[in-house]
Specification:
Length: 128
């Protein structure tokens, strides 16, 4: 439903030292209309040009500090409200590649009243 709004490509930036980036980050929004507890987020897949980044290289921060995707599984006291941007940080040696690339995000959510996972996908063509 809100898939085209997941990635805010204007927030894409490298992280770490300017002369030797260790990764990149961008802001993302939830693709579900109600907000959700972090423990109900089953998957956050980040891909560059179709190649998915390793799960353990991704961190999530909705404003209460970065956590790994594994830590999110038991983050029962944290929520991602609808419309609130969260920072997705990725450990990626050298930072985001220069030039034009495809950045994608897949959010797989466990919603209590749906008998199937809610899967939201956004793909943006970015020049960095």
């Amino acid at each position: 439903m809100f898939d085209k709004y997941l990635i805010d490509e204007t927030t894409l930036r490298n992280t770490g030292p300017a002369d030797a980036p260790t990764g990149f980050a961008f802001e993302a929004k939830l693709g579900y209309y109600r907000g959700i507890g972090l423990s109900m987020i089953e998957k956050l897949d980040v891909s560059i040009d179709g190649e998915t980044v390793a799960r353990d290289a991704v961190r999530f921060d909705e404003g209460k500090g970065p956590i790994s995707l594994d830590e999110m599984e038991t983050a029962y006291d944290r929520r991602w409200p609808f419309g609130t941007p969260a920072t997705i940080s990725v450990q990626y040696p050298g930072g985001f590649p220069k030039g034009e690339h495809e950045l994608s995000l897949v959010e797989q959510l466990r919603v209590s009243y749906l008998p199937f996972p809610s899967v939201n996908t956004d793909v943006k063509r970015v020049t960095f």
